[in-house]
Amino acid sequence: MQASNVSVYSGSWRYPSSMPDFLDLRYYQRIARVLEEGTFDLMFFDDRLAMPSIYGSSPAEAVRHGARPIKLDLTAVLGAAAAATTHLGLGATYSTTYYPPFHVARTFATLDHLSGGRAAWNVVTSVNDAEARNFGVDQHLGHDERYDRAEEFIEVVTRLWDSWEDDWLVMNREAGIFADPEKVHELDHQGRYFSVQGPLTVPRPPQGRPPIIQAGQSGRGQRFAARWADLIFTADPSQAIAAEHYRGQKELITAEGRSADAVRLLPMAYVIVGETETIAREKEDIFLNQLVHPMASLTLLSELTNHDFSGYALDDEVTDELINSVSGIRGLVQGVKRHLGDGPMTLRTLASHRATLLQGPRFVGTGPQVADQMQEWFESRSCDGFVIAATHFPGAFEDFVRLVVPELRRRGLFRTHYTGSTLRENLGLDRPASSFTKPVSGANHG
């Protein structure tokens, strides 16, 4: 999701049935209700802390073409969604580079309590200099240093969530004892990046620790996800690539001493479904060829790579010289070539893979046809599930719930109702013990 005028697909605002009231909380509540009707695990929001303004050192093109210029604060958006639903998980992106750990820990602990255990945190290290300048920093941190900071950040956050043990409440009104101070712990953390006293001002979340979502694609990012993530968000363009990624990531998880089955790999997929295959293919053509302005694509490519492409033409070839001079573009080029082949590539082609429907798998057809494609990915161990990206709001999700979910349920591939009371329970994830709770020895256990 995006708390924005667009979905991840940057042309979504132009689709005729896209709702225009994205600045009204009822917009997000409508979408949340649709997802809960379809028994989705959660809705989670991507986010950035700046307009796309690397291209031409200006946000003008992003504003002109609606290329994600609006990004609402997610606390209010998820609060509204929580009030409109009872089971749907609620995930938000918060950066480890520009927010302090105490703020993030308190935000998600509060959301978890007020939603009855439905919060999830999408951990990002942020991507570009535009974000840095919005927070009084001249230049974005380097790739490895961002992950060094993120490692310490998440250690502090999880310890803050643990700083109240589960059995803290006494509530003895007669004696005037509210809580057991022996069950509430200071951290006294002194690290390379952070100094945090603690304890957190919010008791331990209902889930113990809200599930962690992570989408690192680099080698360092994949190792970070293997250590910390409960849900890993991927963007592999084909089933063969996804299956290879799946095997490699699961090996990294096992190497961290974790159970590979305790972490879910979820590729982002666009679903274009119609009452007939002809209808679905006509819609696909509209989304692929008619709604995304090329300048919107190039603006978003500049944001992603932290490089100003305003001095290039759309049909300029992506040369080895360009790849060597632009930090962060090599992996993107390699991914697109694995999808399209190893021939010459233009900036137009490269940029379109970030702004149109070409950056992940695309399932197109009737409900049964889409279910066939999803079932093949799932049963071949190419994924543990999917992140469904919308081509437009709320119609893409309405179509999916109306046409695809019943077919998945009929095949026994998807739930018919929620069985857990928390997001962790619905995901089949264990609730972690507090790191401050001392284990009870077997000899003394009553």
TrEMBL record:
PANTHER family: ALKANESULFONATE MONOOXYGENASE-RELATED, C2H2 FINGER DOMAIN TRANSCRIPTION FACTOR (EUROFUNG)-RELATED. InterPro entries: Diverse_substr_monoxygenases, Luciferase-like_dom, Luciferase-like_sf, NTA_MOA. Residues 23-379 form the Luciferase-like domain. It comes from Parafrankia colletiae. The keyword Oxidoreductase applies. One of its GO terms (molecular function) is oxidoreductase activity, acting on paired donors, with incorporation or reduction of molecular oxygen. Belongs to the NtaA/SnaA/DszA monooxygenase family. FMN binds at residues 47, 93, 143, 147, 218. This is Monooxygenase. It comes from the Bacteria. Keywords: Flavoprotein, FMN, Monooxygenase, Oxidoreductase. It holds the Pfam family Bac_luciferase.
